[in-house]
């Protein structure tokens, strides 16, 4: 008996597509083309049980993160198998007759994998309780993602410590150009906001302080940055002090909803509104509108869904934890919501902001993610020593899958939306052309 041959045959019959992988199993058997770019090893029967008990992206993710399933070689090749996850999750419900399911079940059972569902990997986030996007719950889930160690993030983000899409505008920014791409992204945001010396900038979700430093050092503005991550706050304050900019930049451990006081000339929100959620998006837009002076600009840099999402049904807050289980929600961005661009624009306009521009950066994010993956792979042993093998595999899987998601049109994109709070006369106070408001001062 060859477990690898039988398993590959069963999966191909189940999915009704050939799998271009070389498979190795717990008994040492192998099957599939020996020169395949994707080499997958089921190290034990538990790996197969994980997939069969959750025949979707969550089951595959659990098997990989736990180390029960190993990918030797090109992880992009495995994740790039056309519609693998979609077929695995929907195939039994759509196309398989009860008789066929019974026959396939006997095939899998013959491999000796019958048993209870394995316990999820230790890094999987347990079911959350409480109202979705309440301040307390948001603080907990943001801490889960960001408070895993600044040294770990530095491994793949590089010295810029910018955890958002870069702007790959230079012809020579292809190899080793991540730092340039992040510098150019921060500068693009500053120019879109029309920053000038003496202005006050609010940086919502300020991360490790990179935007705040760039704006203060290169554009002479005073900055308030807010984050829900204690580790980000401490890191940002230290680097700001090292740069001698503590008198110009204030970093707070604070929810953006608690920011009040005098108004700001500009607001930057880079990679933060994905944590806000559909239900809270109108409140987010209204609050930022209220913090801007008339004529003040808002730059919202956020991932957007290209796939149509139906309007959410209203439901009690107590039931908000019962959302569909996905890899991203259970391992990476708990409670994160990727919304269509139209929802963001609508919320801004209803709040009284005038949307002046939107720029899509989909290809830029694919390049950024590929650079992060390369950095993480080059520092793999150090990453494992810092956060453990399971969490390191989680981030590698997440970054690799995300790169593929942004490379394929029609799935994900990312937009910089520029909006302005109109003046009392109804004017935007902005130059008439994009060339004018992008020109450096």
TrEMBL record:
Pfam family, one: CMAS
MF-aspect GO terms: methyltransferase activity
Enzyme Commission numbers on file: 2.1.1.-
Ranges in coiled-coil conformation: none
InterPro entries per UniProt: CFA/CMAS, CMAS, SAM-dependent_MTases_sf
GO biological process: methylation
Keyword Transferase: yes
Entries under Gene3D superfamilies matching the protein: Vaccinia Virus protein VP39
The protein's enzyme class: transferase
Keyword annotations of the record: Lipid metabolism, Methyltransferase, S-adenosyl-L-methionine, Transferase
Entry similarity comment: Belongs to the CFA/CMAS family.
Identification of the protein by name: Cyclopropane-fatty-acyl-phospholipid synthase family protein
């Amino acid at each position: 008996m060859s477990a690898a041959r039988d398993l590959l045959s069963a999966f191909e019959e189940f999915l009704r597509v050939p799998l271009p992988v070389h498979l190795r199993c717990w008994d040492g058997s192998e099957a599939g083309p020996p020169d395949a770019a994707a080499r997958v090893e089921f190290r034990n029967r538990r790996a197969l049980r994980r997939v069969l008990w959750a025949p979707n992206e969550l089951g595959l993710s659990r098997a990989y993160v736990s180390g029960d399933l190993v990918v030797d070689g090109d992880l992009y090749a495995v994740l790039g198998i056309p519609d693998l996850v979609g077929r695995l999750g929907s195939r039994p419900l759509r196309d398989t007759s009860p008789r066929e399911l019974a026959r396939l079940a006997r095939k899998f059972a013959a491999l000796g994998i019958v048993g209870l569902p394995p316990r999820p990997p230790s890094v999987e986030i347990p079911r959350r309780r409480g109202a979705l996007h309440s301040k307390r719950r948001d603080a907990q889930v943001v801490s889960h993602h960001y408070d895993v160690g600044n040294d770990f993030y530095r491994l793949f983000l590089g010295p810029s410590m910018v955890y958002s899409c870069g702007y790959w505008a230079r012809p020579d920014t292809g190899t080793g150009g991540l730092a340039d791409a992040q510098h150019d992204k921060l500068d693009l945001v500053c120019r879109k906001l029309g920053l000038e010396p003496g202005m006050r900038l609010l940086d919502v979700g300020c991360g490790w302080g990179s935007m705040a430093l760039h704006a203060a050092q290169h554009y002479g503005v005073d900055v308030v940055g807010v984050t829900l991550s204690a580790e980000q706050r401490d890191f940002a304050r230290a680097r700001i002090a090292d740069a001698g900019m503590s008198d110009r930049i204030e970093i707070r451990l604070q929810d953006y909803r608690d920011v009040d006081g005098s108004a700001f000339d500009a607001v930057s929100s880079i990679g933060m509104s994905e944590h806000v959620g559909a239900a809270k998006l109108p409140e987010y837009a209204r609050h930022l509108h209220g913090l801007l002076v008339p004529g003040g600009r808002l730059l919202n840099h956020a991932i957007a869904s290209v796939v149509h999402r139906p309007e959410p049904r209203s439901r009690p807050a107590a039931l908000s934890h019962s959302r569909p289980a996905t890899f991203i929600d259970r391992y990476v961005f708990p409670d994160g919501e990727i919304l269509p661009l139209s929802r963001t624009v609508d919320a801004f306009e209803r709040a009284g902001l005038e949307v002046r521009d939107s720029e899509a950066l989909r290809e830029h994010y694919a390049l950024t993610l590929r650079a992060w993956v390369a950095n993480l792979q080059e520092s793999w042993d150090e990453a494992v020593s810092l956060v453990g093998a399971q969490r390191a595999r989680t981030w590698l899987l997440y970054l690799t899958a995300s790169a593929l998601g942004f490379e394929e049109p029609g799935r994900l994109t990312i937009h910089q939306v520029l909006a302005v709070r109109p003046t009392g006369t109804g004017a935007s106070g902005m130059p008439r052309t994009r060339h004018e408001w992008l020109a450096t001062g």
